UniProtKB/TrEMBL annotation:
One Pfam entry name: LGT
GO cellular-component term (any): plasma membrane
Main location group: membrane
Membrane topology: Multi-pass membrane protein
Function comment: Catalyzes the transfer of the diacylglyceryl group from phosphatidylglycerol to the sulfhydryl group of the N-terminal cysteine of a prolipoprotein, the first step in the formation of mature lipoproteins.
Similarity section: Belongs to the Lgt family.
Swiss-Prot/TrEMBL GO biological process terms: lipoprotein biosynthetic process
Pathway this chain belongs to: Protein modification; lipoprotein biosynthesis (diacylglyceryl transfer)
Protein name per UniProt: Phosphatidylglycerol--prolipoprotein diacylglyceryl transferase
Binding, a 1,2-diacyl-sn-glycero-3-phospho-(1'-sn-glycerol): R126
Amino acid sequence: MYTHLPFAYDLGPLQLTGFGIAMLLAFVIGQMVASENLEARGFDSEIMGDVTVAAVVGGLLGAKLYYAILVGDATAIFSRAGFVFWGGLIGGIVASAGTILYKKQSFAQISDAAAPGLAAAYSVGRSGCWAVGDDYGRPWDGPLSVAFPEGAPPSTVDNLVAFGAKGLEGLPGNQVLAVHPTQLYETAMGLVMFFILWRMRDHKHAAGWLFGAYCVLAGLERFVVEFFRAKDDRFFGPFTMAQVIAIAFAVGGVAWMTMRSRVGPGRPATQAA
């Protein structure tokens, strides 16, 4: 078992956290990968700056709005907690699509180029959850288990019971337990998604097909990892709200891939609108 301590430094009135650093790096790396891919396809990558800004704003608003709806408290929008992935991803996609259409550019072309960057950004972003001890998993005493005595929140019996963990009766409420380090699982799976999408970036289908592939992979990744998460929103039997959204996202990705699956003569097919 490994005991985790959060990465955070106080700089006067400001606190520098691993989560904040990871979020910054996630957007920077995501933009770099997307810009590189767009330029390799023969397009001007200047628009990626505007798209990234839109993704940041839309992602933050979407994440907080989703969290407020999930907990049933409108004031939760103003808390420092609750940056929920699905809300952030959906909000970021909507804001980015609006910016792309406003600029009279092709959403299919840009989303296709951005797909590997989205996976890379996800992997880096999840490392921020690890840095602050957030979004850990269910109690586990395996060889890779991690205890979060100073997590956000700590992995105590009381907190894990509140998250829906079973079989902890009789244990002291303040006892810190080892759990699945699901943040690291997601960081690793994000890297796998990135490498898969990067290898498929020269596909012969119509533009947008690779974005559909990203949606499928992201949905499958989240659906699997949720089984290991400490969650209190299992509203659908053993399934969490995030898993329901993951299934819908993956199905939507399959539909989009099917729509964009026509084969063309090499690179021009990828550039098709």
